[in-house]
C-alpha cells in the first residue's frame, strides 16, 4: 500500500463502480456485475476487510480459493466472477482505492465449451422442485416464477419485464416487449420481442396467482408487473435469490448431498442460499429447459425461436444431449426402411 491511497469501504467502492459504468453497460450486464460484486463485498465483510486500501494479492488468492472450493464454482463461473473483479480493481486503482496493477494479479481460468455447459437443472430435479412448490407454496410468487422459467426457458430479465397485460389466459401465450425507456429491456432489443406459447397447466398456475396472491402492484410507469412484490416489480436480483433458495436440495428433498448439518449450514438462511454448492441461478434453469425441449424431439429451430438463442450458440452453450442421444433422435427422422 502507498501513502497516495484514500480509504474506501468495499461497499462504497462497489456502488461507485456501478454508478460509473451505468451508462456504458446494458441493464443485464450491470445487474450481473452488481450480483458478482455483492458476493465479493459480503466476503470482505466476513473477513473484516473494511478498507480497499488493504486489499492485496493474497486476498485475491483467498477469495479465489473460497469461491472455488467452498462455493464449488465451475471454471466458466469462476472466469466470470474473476473477470468482473479484475475490472472492478482496475477502477478502484483509478480512484486511488487500491494499488495500481493489483488487477494484473488476477489470472482467469481457461474454459472450454464443456465448462460452459456444466451447470444445468435436470428435468428430474425440476420436477422435484416444482412438486415441492406446488404442495407448499402453490400459486405464490416463488412457485409461479420457477414454473414459468422452467416451462419457457426465459432469461430472468425477460421474465421480470412481463406485465399482466402481456399474458393472454384464453389464448395461452406471453408477449415479450422491449421497453428500455420504462426500465424493462430485453437482451437482444427488438429482436427479442416474440410470442411464447404456454401450456394449460402453467396457465392454471398463473391464473390462480393473479386471482388470489398477486399484490396488484403498479410500477412507477403505471404498469402492472406480472411478477411483483408488495413494493415493486420483481427485480432480477430477487429473482436470482428465489432461484438459489428453492434449488437447494435440503429445501425440496430434505437431504444434503454435501454432508452438511442442515440446521447449522451457513447457506440455510434464504439471503445466503447462493452459498450452497448445489443451488442454481436462473441461467442453469434456462439451460436445463432448453436441453429438455431438445431431448423431447422439439426441432432446434423451434427451440431457437422460443428461447431467443441462435442455433450456433444453442449447440455450443446450451445443448447438453449426449452424442448418442442426438444419434437416436436423428434416426427417428429416417425412412422406416433405413432405420435398421
CATH architecture of the largest domain: Orthogonal Bundle
Overall number of structural domains: 3
Q: What can be said about the biggest beta sheet?
A: 3 strands, antiparallel
Percent of sequence in beta strands: under 5%
CATH H-level superfamily title of the largest domain: Intergrase catalytic core
Q: How helix-rich are the residues, as a percent range?
A: 40-55%
User: Taking all residues together, what is the mean pLDDT?
Assistant: 86
- The H-and-E topology, N to C, reads as HHHHHHHEEEHHHHHHH
- CATH class wording of the largest domain: Mainly Alpha
- Largest sheet strand order: 1-2-3
SSE topology:
Elements: H1 10-21, H2 27-46, H3 57-70, H4 75-94, H5 123-136, H6 141-152, H7 156-161, E1 167-168, E2 173-176, E3 194-197, H8 200-213, H9 236-246, H10 249-252, H11 282-295, H12 300-307, H13 311-318, H14 323-331
Helix pairs in contact: 1-2, 2-4, 5-6, 6-8, 6-11
Structural description of this entry:
There is one protein chain. This protein is an all-alpha fold. It has 3 domains: 108 residues, DNA polymerase, domain 1 (Orthogonal Bundle), CATH 1.10.150.130; 153 residues, Intergrase catalytic core (hpI Integrase, Chain A, Orthogonal Bundle); 57 residues, no CATH class. It is 49% helix and 3% strand. β1 and β2 form a beta hairpin. Keywords: DNA integration, DNA recombination, DNA-binding. Pfam families: Phage_int_SAM_1 (PF02899), Phage_integrase (PF00589).
Amino acid at each position: 500500500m502507498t501513502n497516495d491511497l484514500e480509504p474506501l469501504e468495499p461497499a462504497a467502492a462497489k456502488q461507485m463502480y456501478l454508478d460509473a459504468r451505468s451508462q456504458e453497460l446494458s441493464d443485464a450486464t450491470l445487474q450481473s456485475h452488481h450480483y458478482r460484486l455483492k458476493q465479493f463485498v459480503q466476503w470482505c465483510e466476513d473477513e473484516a476487510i473494511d478498507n480497499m486500501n488493504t486489499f492485496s494479492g493474497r486476498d485475491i488468492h483467498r477469495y479465489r480459493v473460497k469461491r472455488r472450493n467452498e462455493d464449488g464454482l465451475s471454471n466458466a463461473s469462476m472466469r466470470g466472477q474473476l473477470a468482473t473483479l479484475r475490472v472492478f480493481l482496475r477502477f478502484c486503482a483509478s480512484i486511488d482505492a487500491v494499488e495500481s496493477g493489483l488487477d494484473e494479479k488476477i489470472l482467469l481460468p481457461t474454459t472450454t465449451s464443456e465448462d460452459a455447459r456444466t451447470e444445468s437443472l435436470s428435468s428430474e430435479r425440476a420436477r422435484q422442485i416444482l412438486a415441492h412448490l406446488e404442495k407448499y407454496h402453490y400459486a405464490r410468487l416463488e412457485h409461479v416464477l420457477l414454473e414459468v422459467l422452467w416451462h419457457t426457458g426465459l432469461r430472468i430479465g425477460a421474465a421480470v419485464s412481463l406485465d399482466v397485460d402481456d399474458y393472454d389466459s384464453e389464448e395461452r401465450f406471453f408477449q415479450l416487449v422491449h421497453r428500455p425507456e420504462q426500465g424493462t429491456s430485453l437482451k437482444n432489443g427488438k429482436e427479442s420481442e416474440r410470442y411464447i406459447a404456454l401450456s394449460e397447466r402453467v396457465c392454471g398456475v398463473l391464473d390462480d396467482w393473479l386471482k388470489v396472491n398477486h399484490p396488484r402492484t403498479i410500477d412507477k410507469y403505471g404498469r402492472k408487473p406480472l411478477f411483483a412484490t408488495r413494493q415493486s416489480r420483481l427485480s432480477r436480483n430477487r429473482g436470482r435469490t428465489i432461484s438459489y433458495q428453492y434449488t437447494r436440495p435440503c429445501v425440496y428433498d430434505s437431504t444434503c448431498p454435501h454432508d452438511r448439518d442442515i440446521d447449522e449450514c451457513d447457506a440455510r438462511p434464504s439471503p445466503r442460499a447462493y452459498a450452497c454448492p448445489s443451488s442454481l441461478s436462473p441461467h442453469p434453469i434456462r439451460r436445463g429447459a432448453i436441453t429438455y425441449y431438445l431431448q423431447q424431439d422439439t426441432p432446434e429451430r423451434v427451440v431457437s425461436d422460443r428461447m431467443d438463442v441462435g442455433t450456433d450458440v444453442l449447440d455450443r452453450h446450451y445443448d447438453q444431449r449426449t452424442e448418442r442421444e442426438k444419434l437416436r433422435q436423428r434416426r427417428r427422422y429416417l425412412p422406416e426402411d433405413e432405420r435398421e
